[in-house]
Amino acid sequence: MHFRNTNTGILLRRWIARWLFYPVYLVEYISVYYKLFIKSKSQPLFIVLTIGKVGSSSVYYSIKEQLTSRVFHIHYISEEGIKSSWEQHKNSSRKSVPLHLITSKILNRLFKKVDEDIYFITVFREPLQRKLSSFFQNLDQFKNEVDLKGLQFDVNKASQVLNNDYFNSIIDEEDKWIEQELIGPHGFSIYHKNEIEKNNYVVERKENLNLLILKMETLNDSWDEAISKLYNNQDSIELITVNDGGEKYYNKAYKAIKNTIKLDKQILENLYGTRYFKTFYEDQKSELIETWIKR
To answer: How far from 242 is each of 54, 57, 212, CA to CA, in Å?
Structure first.
């Protein structure tokens, strides 16, 4: 695990982000500008743009270490997405924004000036597990509900928050993210059900924009063929497995709650009735409902 994702690394990054925001922003602006406009364009430009908690770190580090150093890893590139996430983080217990969001804001300002091919990669994940994982990643936004103090929190209260109402409030979160970050700003179509069912990946091209859609659950099986189709590189690119959550402070509680949480059938029907689910995970509906249903 990279140091930045250990408990010590998390606390250090939050301290730096809170008290050294302007120096961090300036350094990151220079870094982004250099990668976009100065660094040798013999290296391709990649943006790993994903909704949170889909295993995208493995994709990012695989690209960065084997293909190009001109690569960014972000969750938002639209003004709407950046603004909303920025406010959530600033109003949370951390009182600061993560570096990837600063990168997003800078990319949003400079993106339209890029006149070369851009390769986007996004990864999707079964929605219930993704939402559950995202909750723990963003515990600082539920400080009062879970009695969060530093990296300590009340596991029982966290379990109580993860109820039908919580999941019902974010039923179509993935569809909204797709519209906000991929369809609206760039005109991608995204919902290619036949291709997903056939290959477990989709490659879509729009002028100088190239998009690869992958599924976390089939990433290992589809990676070689998918990345080759997106970017015709002579050398193979091995998928490096990176587990960002394996040693995080909430990992034990996350696993315990994941193994016990159950939801009402109607909530599951709503969750598995979204366009996102019907396109990417429809064939797993019966099995997933059986797994998560409250008896």
So the answer is: 12, 6, 19
Cα separation, 79 vs 115, in Å, equals 20
Looking at residue 212, its pLDDT comes to 98
The first and second tokens of residue 231, run together, are 């970017």
Q: Half-sphere exposure (CA, 13 Å, Cβ side) for 256? A: 8
pLDDT score for 92? 80
- Long-range contact set of residues 144-150: C-beta below 8 Å, sequence gap at least 24: 148/93, 150/11
For the segment 68-117, what is each residue's pLDDT rounded down to a tens digit? 999 999 999 999 999 999 999 888 877 789 999 999 999 999 998 999 99
Q: Is the pTM of the predicted complex or chain greater than 0.90?
A: yes
Q: Which tokens in the block code for residue 244? A: 């960002």
pLDDT digits (tens, 9 = 90+) for 111-170: 989 999 999 999 999 999 999 999 999 998 898 999 998 889 999 999 999 999 999 999
Amino acid identity at 277? F
Number of Cβ within 10 Å of residue 124's Cβ equals 24
| Cα distance from N-terminal residue to C-terminal residue, the chain | 38
Measured distance CA(105)–CA(121) in Å, rounded: 19
121 forms bridges with which residues in the sheet?
A: 48, 212
State how far the alpha carbon of 26 is from the alpha carbons of 4, 29, 103, in Å: 20, 5, 11
Q: What pairing do the DSSP bridges indicate for beta strands 118-124 and 209-215?
A: parallel
- Asked whether the beta carbons of 137 and 234 are under 8 A apart, the reply is no
Are 145 and 77 a contacting pair, CB within 8 Å?
no
**Which amino acid, one-letter code, is at 125?**
R
